[in-house]
Fold this protein.
Amino acid sequence: MSMQSPRRPLALVIHGGAGVIDMATLGETAAQRIHADLGHALDAGYAVLAAGGGALDAVEAAVGVLEDAPGFNAGRGAGSTADGRHELDASIMDGQHRRAGAVAGVSSVRNPVRLARRVLEDSPHVFLIGAGAEQFADLHADIERVPNEWFSTEARRQQLMEAQREEQQAWQPSQDLRGRYFGTVGAVALDSRGHLAAATSTGGMTNKRWGRVGDSPLIGAGTWADARCAVSCSGWGEYYIRNAVAHDIACRVAYRGDRLRHAAEDVVLGEVPAHGGDGGVIALDRDGNVVVAFSTRGMYRGWIRPDGSRGTAIQRDD
């Protein structure tokens, strides 16, 4: 009689961005919609895992749902550039083989995470930007395209107008962006074979100029996955880049033997604020330990643990 190996734990963690989330401004209806959209993303990602699918497929599925939900700053509902357009970024990484794909500054790809997956699988490269990334998308009929205005929502238009009013009223633009809501979406997953993956997607900082790119599409800054852990970040991207946040967390686990929670908190609650930034992170290790850490007032987030327990949350005390 053959002996079946014990079932490995499955786990999934998602986020919809860290920042200032004022519940009075957000409102009960919008909060309920955020919880529902986080739940739909968990359902999509976990369905892949429960069917024996891979972590890479699971994070792509979860992030794709969040990109289509207009309450988050990714895909539809993306932040606006200073000229009112949308430039989207995404990355994805397979922890088993450390394969990665990323795109930045795309303007017509409905789900940038799917294009990042194509870069991982169908190109010899890791990172494609702007017009070149759009040309690569032209080669793949399954990559859905939309007009740039499809990404617009009234809420993002109002955010852009408010940011530009503040800029005009100030003697000079503020260099301190701590506490402002950025929004990014991401997912980390552990599959039945013990493999990990991570993905992150964003519409970028509202009122950004000059082709600014944050940490979300940068492997090692906003996204990382290896054999030990997977990480997806959200926050003030310049500081996540300067501190190589996602990779630093993984290095503390790999080289110092830190517990994942200690590593994530030391970096996100220590190193990033010490250098002037803020934000949050979700992380998962090969044993299914779930970590969510953030220095901001809130972070849209959801999780399904190895024991099957699940939840979604918005504020720190949820």
Notes: Residues 28-50 form the longest helix (23 residues).
